[in-house]
TrEMBL record, chains A, B:
Residues 49-316 form the FAD-binding domain. One of its GO terms (molecular function) is FAD binding. GO terms for biological process: kynurenine metabolic process. InterPro entries: FAD-bd, FAD/NAD-bd_sf. This is FAD-binding domain-containing protein. It comes from Frieseomelitta varia. Keywords: FAD, Flavoprotein, Membrane, Monooxygenase, NADP, Oxidoreductase, Transmembrane, Transmembrane helix.
């Protein structure tokens, strides 16, 4: 009994070991409405490993993934600055269409006779202790009672399963909306049916308090998003306000998208909100488990949400192996291993918004980044930058952050040493003069 | 349309200015089950001011409140240490029976013809935008539709109104359970029908990781509570385990309560959980408002929860006066003025558990407390200790904490000065010796 995107993944992964289960996937709609609904998906190693485990990595990455080698920063004057994600080992993240991924996952799940797919099903109530659910058919408007041995709530950021768990004692939970919203905008194909900008980068227009980003699609368009305080978005009341704002902040986008299309796309949509979810525990007894966004929805600024969701399932698969499918052991262990890590990545995603919209343009950030790259190039197994541990390794999220803190400490100490050395070198001539003076004075005494 | 304890208060307070309202109080039960349900209520200035505004202070404080002048700490060896709440101005907090307070508030509300009381009513759904509610009658099991101009959700820590608001965008909310539980225990009357311990104190048995407390009741009994990690409580499986634990930790209580009654009371009840709630905003448009525990339930360790709830209503009353009952202005202002303060007191209540169970026995804490008292006595209008600002003033909770931080800073600086002075004084003889030596050497040169 599982739900939604991470849920679509279960059928394949959890049965690959020929386990004695029947899996019922109850899904709200066959293909999620992918336009204006959410930001493009970024795929990296955690998601890829999960896809690899069920033989889907190739078809997703090679056939439909668009490699993004780094960030491309757009300054107001139209100049560009490339910032590679991994200039040493050449790792990339991949822009993947949500629609395509949905189809691949559903097709894969459908191949297993033990998997049954039910569409237009919405959970409206559940007894998370005994596995009894009430499911609404959104087409026929009928409600059916269903019984499951295990409920896996992969039902997204606004999870009904989590809301039901939140009524139980000792379930901690927080939902935080940031005070910024976003609107999706689209960059059309360029001349000769090619990308209008580099198709190998995640494009960012960092402007301090707000930003635009754009990810390449495989039809050679880009899906862009403006992220800004609701206060800023609210001020763009008329097409005129909006266009003069874009003229000032993002003049190159005005060229690429065209005034008319830009205005149409923007005013067609309401700004959307961004939520971050933390909760603990993720399970109830041996009956109910939260995974994916239902357990740890995060703001999209680290591009790691889907990867973390897929990694949940990979961890679950590993625990099923270790504990021989005994869910009374698996579920508490899942909570134990995953909660703190998920909280850590939720916070990091929040921090990365500030990095993307503001810090990337600052000298201190650029200095730190070049130091990181310098050391990473010389001692690539010892000095791994934060972004690489998050996106290109399966290091626990907590350890990624601890590793970054260790690096900060080392660099601070080196900084002090260098400062003392410089002071010493600057002082040396005076010390020599004094020494000479003393020598003279001794001589003449 | 209001609910529960803080709600019982509305009828009286909000109508005292002869306002043109009808108020419908829908209440889950006439008198809350007060035994084993919750800790005794502590009443101090914020709650008293609200009661005073409707002429109820005297009947609650003078006739039924039991003045507690301070903490009485019980050591393991049976020795006692008194710690006054306000040794300068003699302010007290009052132990008040929840049952009695309920009756007083309901009787007062009933006197207004504009107030209608409905019992055994439970909200099951609400449209917080248009004021339409579904109310269940818990006796007849019938559901009625109700329409209100303003919904005031005073429906407690597990508020249904808040849960409905949590489904709306941009509503931030967190629920945190601490990993400690509590069990209520009762100290019977002593000889000659008098208090078995001092009836003028809040008794504490601080034991580091856990503690017992006891508050005097007006029938000369005490309501006690053991607060401890669930792990510790879980280990007390048999009466034998329990008694040997009490023999070691709280031998005087074993005497006062008696072994048999203690075991009976403890094993009759399951340990209860302690929840802390923060959310923001407290309102939706001009239609819905959260107050009291529904908005900011806190752990009970500062004894300020009910006072903060009553103060909400006092603030609301003040805003109704200021904005001439225009709720489109009142409700956003309430959120603006109250949210951060409530978050601050929730955190302080959490901290005070550590103070009560552990810090009170430490030398550093006792030193700080005597410094506080010393300065408070000398400059009582400038140096007001934290506890006094919280319980004996209506200073904003944020300002109480800022005031404490300022005091910490001052004391740290004084500490440094004193340390330098002492070092100076200790060094003085050596400096003198050196000076003398120099004087000699000069003499003989």
């Amino acid at each position: 009994m599982v739900f939604d995107l991470a849920g679509r993944f279960f059928g394949s992964l959890l049965l690959r070991q020929e386990r004695p289960f029947c899996i019922h996937l109850r899904i709200s709609c066959r293909v999620e409405d992918y336009r204006g609904q959410s930001i493009d998906l970024a795929l990296s190693i955690r998601g890829r490993e999960a896809l690899r485990a069920v033989g889907l990595e190739e078809s997703v990455v090679d056939h439909h993934g668009i490699a993004m080698r780094g960030r491309m920063l757009h300054n107001k004057d139209g100049t560009l600055r490339e910032m590679l994600y991994d200039s040493v080992k050449g790792n990339c993240i991949y822009s993947v269409s949500r629609r395509y991924l949905n189809i691949v996952l559903l097709n894969a799940a459908e191949k297993y006779p033990e998997v049954s797919l039910f569409f237009n099903k919405k959970i409206i109530d559940a007894n998370v202790d005994n596995g009894k659910l009430k499911i609404l058919d959104t087409k026929t408007k009928t409600i059916e009672g269903v019984e499951a041995d295990l409920i896996i709530g992969a039902d997204g950021a606004y999870s009904t399963v989590r809301r039901i768990m939140a009524k139980r004692p000792l379930f901690n939970c927080s939902q935080t909306y940031i005070e910024h919203g976003y609107v999706e905008l689209f960059v059309p194909v360029g001349t000769n049916n090619e990308f209008a900008m580099s198709g190998e980068h995640l494009h960012i227009w960092p402007r301090g308090e707000f930003m635009m980003i754009a990810l390449p699609n495989d039809d050679h368009t880009f899906t862009g998003n403006i992220f800004a305080p609701f206060g800023t978005l609210d001020q763009l009341k008329t097409p005129q306000d909006f266009l003069s704002f874009y003229q000032k902040q993002f003049p190159d986008l005005l060229e690429l998208i065209g005034r008319e299309k830009l205005v149409k796309d923007y005013f067609e949509r309401e700004p959307k909100t961004l939520i971050s979810i933390k909760c603990k525990p993720y399970h109830v007894g041996k009956t109910t488990l939260l995974v994916g966004d239902a357990a740890h929805a995060m703001v999209p600024f680290y591009g790691i949400g889907m990867n973390a969701g897929f990694e949940d399932i990979l961890l679950l698969d590993e625990l099923m192996e270790r504990y021989n499918s005994d869910f009374s052991l698996i579920l508490p262990k899942f909570t134990e291993l995953r909660c703190e890590d998920a909280h850590a990545i939720c916070e990091l995603a929040m921090y990365n918004y500030i990095e993307m919209r503001d810090l990337v343009t600052r000298k201190s950030f650029l200095l730190r980044k070049s130091l990181d790259t310098f050391l990473y190039r010389r001692i690539p197994n010892t000095w791994i930058p934060l972004y690489s541990t998050i996106h290109f390794s399966r290091m626990k999220f907590r350890d990624c952050i601890a590793n970054k803190e260790w690096q900060d400490k080392v660099l601070r100490r080196i900084g002090w040493c260098v400062m003392f050395l410089i002071i010493g070198m600057l002082m040396a001539p005076f010390v020599e003069v004094l020494a000479e003076k003393n020598a003279f004075s001794t001589e003449y005494e």
